[in-house]
Amino acid sequence: DQINQAVDIMRQRVDSTGVSEAEVTTQGGSNVVVSLPGTPDKATIDSLKRSSQLRFRAVLVEAAGAPQPTPTSTGTATAPAGTATTSAKSAFPPALSKDTTPTPTPTATGTTGSTGTTGTPGTKPKDASDLAWITPDIEKQFTTLNCSDKAVEAKLATLVDDPAKPLVTCSQDRTVKYILGPAEVVGTDIADASSGFQTTQTGAQTNQVEIQLKFDANGTKKFGDVTSRLVSLPQPRNQFAIVLDSQVLSAPVTQSAITAGTASITGNFTEASAKTLADQLKFGALPMSFTPQTEEQVSPTLGADQLQKGLLAGLIGLLLVVIYSLFQYRALGFVTVASLVIASMLTYVTVALLGWSHGFRLTLAGVTGLIVSIGITADSFIVFFERVRDEVREGRQLRQAVESGWARARRTILVADGVNMLAALVLYILATSNVRGFAFTLMLTTLIDVAVVFLFTHPIVAILANTKFFGEGHKWSGFDPERLGAKQPLYAGRGRVTIAARRAAEESAQS
């Protein structure tokens, strides 16, 4: 169940970067295989590895991440990397130390954050900010932790982050180390997450990139309770640490109780990294961490072969539509050909722009959607032409038939395309992987079909109705009155019916 949950979250994370048609499947019950068309960037790859467990923890102790110089009687000496220092040791309230090492006497220059309520050994913590959480083992971990050590990064990546226990960790920039209380607000309490530039109270945009968090009802209450408690505590226990994957993103000071259910995360974010993190928090944390086993770039030869065959199938389909249109509508069929050419050009330009701006990759499923759209687009032209021909059969002039036929065909075309759009939209929302690519291209070409019919096909037919070839009902025009079985002659003088032709028609009807 956890593997399946991780697959769903991974797929959402990849899809949030654009319409990439990623395939995320399981293999062997413990492995996840992710197939991405194109060349994914590092941010996308990293989003698949990170669990993105977000937790809010109260700060108990804070100190410099690297060893600090130890004061001596003759000067200063730098402590070796990885050893405990006097300044770090003095960060603890003396009453909490249970080891046998003598605790240095706090001085004005050596004490950091030792003010506030202190606990006693064996005392049960009353809340997440209680210093009784600091055991000798926690104290030892803290004093020996050197965040500047290169080996610490790998250690933090595999750190077991139990939300019910205190945590000894570093900030992401490795400049500060912390002892943190148990987690009080977790990632599942987040209802939404977004990224962007921070704005001032007057609405002016700053250069600071932030991540906006919105908590659900349960998270709002818990976050309000936490900030209400922290605001009355001394430094550094009035801070709450925002911990992502066992590392502190930020540890802001609580200046007032936050009960509105929103929070902001700021730091050394770029627009891209902030969006990646916001998507990870929005779509949820992975139930487990993953490490990459293999990563390979597959040659595009197979994809190119599939694309060529798909385009060949589309070309054959287009050729059949052209042959049918010319056979059924004669010269009017060239309007269908021109409309299809324009629709194809618009589709090509749109797909190219989406590929450049949003990383859209045209896979075989997407090509299938484009091929299906040929029939849908041609169907709109056929509906329009047949409506006009029906009006001609009723005895109307061609120009009048074009307008009245368009009024009737327009509703039918919109309803038909609306049904196609609705079906494609539902398919896109409910489906995954390549099926979404098919649904996306189907939606795209449906919109293009509506634009071409309204902005090109109808105006062109209206113009052709005023020409001599179409207006007089040439037998190769597609509007031949005899072939259509019109009730009376309609074509003379560019669509105008002469008095002699009308009398002849009336006499013919009487006889």
What does this structure look like?
The protein is an alpha+beta fold and 511 residues long. The protein has 15 helices and 12 strands. It has a 5-stranded antiparallel sheet with strand order 6-7-3-10-11. A hairpin with a 3-residue loop joins strand 1 (23-27) and strand 2. Helix 8 (301-329) packs antiparallel against helix 9, helix 9 (333-358) packs antiparallel against helix 12 (434-464) and helix 11 (398-430) runs antiparallel to helix 12 (434-464). The chain is elongated.
Describe the secondary structure blueprint for this structure.
Elements: H1 2-15, E1 23-27, E2 31-35, H2 42-49, E3 54-64, E4 70-71, E5 76-77, H3 86-89, H4 136-144, H5 150-157, E6 167-170, E7 176-186, E8 190-199, E9 205-215, H6 217-230, E10 240-244, E11 247-250, E12 262-266, H7 271-283, H8 301-329, H9 333-358, H10 364-393, H11 398-430, H12 434-464, H13 468-471, H14 481-484, H15 499-510
Antiparallel strand pairs: 1-2, 3-7, 3-10, 4-5, 6-7, 8-9, 9-12, 10-11
Helix pairs in contact: 8-9, 8-10, 9-12, 10-11, 10-12, 11-12
